[in-house]
Amino acid sequence: MFQGSSALTLDAKGRMSIPTRHRDALIEREQGRLTLTRHPDGCLLVYPRSLWEQKRQQIAAFPMSARALQRLLLGSAQDVDMDSAGRILVAPELRSAVGLEREAMLLGLGGHFELWNAAELERRQAEELAQGMSDVFEQFSF
Known about the structure:
CATH class: Alpha Beta
């Protein structure tokens, strides 16, 4: 299970280092193989390859009414491998699609990650908090 957030910096070539606390598990379980794709919320999804292969089958089975989502998720998917320094390359078209330039945030969300433009994530979280919490808190306590 991946959790927590990590502030990252993309280098001039668009590479980012996977945080050490996640790197070892990804190398051990996935041989450093990941898949990146776009998310409708404006971030990138980062999946361990084995989990992505399961998700890919689910997405491919969507009905025709979800064709736009299929195009976004499957049409943007790119397989990447960690290099010997624990870095992955985020392709220019993916960086451009979500506004990733230099400062990024990687969020562990259980089995996968979200990769955000740091400023956009901060703006979005502030906006969502200002709107109030959803009904889910009626069924959950801290």
